[in-house]
Amino acid sequence: MDCFSCAHCRTQGCKTADGRYPDFCPTAALSKEKADAVTKKMNKSRKIGKIARIAAEVEGLFYCQMTRVEETVEFLQRSGAKKVGIATCVGLINETRLLTKIFDKKGVEYYVVCCKVGAVDKSEIGIPDEHKVNKGRTYESMCNPIMQAELLNEQGTDFNIIMGLCCGHDMLFTMHSKAPVTTLVVKDRVLCHNPVLALYGSETMYSRFKDKPVDTPADKSAVK
Known about the structure:
The chain is α/β, with parallel strands linked by helices. It is globular, with a radius of gyration of 21 Å. Strand 3 (159-163), helix 7 and strand 4 (181-185) form a beta-alpha-beta unit. The chain is built from 8 helices and 4 strands; from the N terminus they run H-H-H-H-E-H-E-H-E-H-E-H. The longest helix is centred in the first third of the chain and has 17 residues, at 46-62. The chain has a 4-stranded parallel sheet, with helices on both faces. It has 2 domains: 31-65, no CATH class; 80-211, 3-Layer(aba) Sandwich (Rossmann fold). It has helices at residues 26-29, 32-44, 46-62, 68-79, 93-106, 145-155, 169-176, 196-200; strands at residues 84-88, 110-114, 159-163, 181-185.
């Protein structure tokens, strides 16, 4: 590997600014002008600054006290959002209904669009039969994240929430959403939508990840 980054660091000096930075640390290499420019952007933009400050408030006040669902509700209420969009996978519609019940009790207005909206067959974008989930059928609806985003744009949502969109579909949704997007549920059909479990088990049960081991360069992460 020719390029080392934060994954190879063992000091995390950026958390305390104590100067314990490895020689490849992006913080150590960051110019003051660039750092100041980003901070200025947060302070200058009302929208960006508001999101940054509310996120910091929720973290500081409720650290390790609230679940992600509770944190999301808290963020939305503190932001004064008038309408929230929910882009949901059709396979998580029941979970989305549970979320909307919480929103109802908390007074959060929402609009939900499921991934199969538009009822467009996968063949319309060039998906062959052998790449469909149910092979041999004449029709299979494609996921339509761009349409989800456009419909929520029409609703004028202040923020949008992703509920289990597939990898790639979540990218397309985020690219086309006019409102800021947060992810509440990440799709993982094998691990009950808990993808981090694959990382926790990567040294044991997921031994196939060891096919091409990558050694962490201990000498490169030494304190300089």
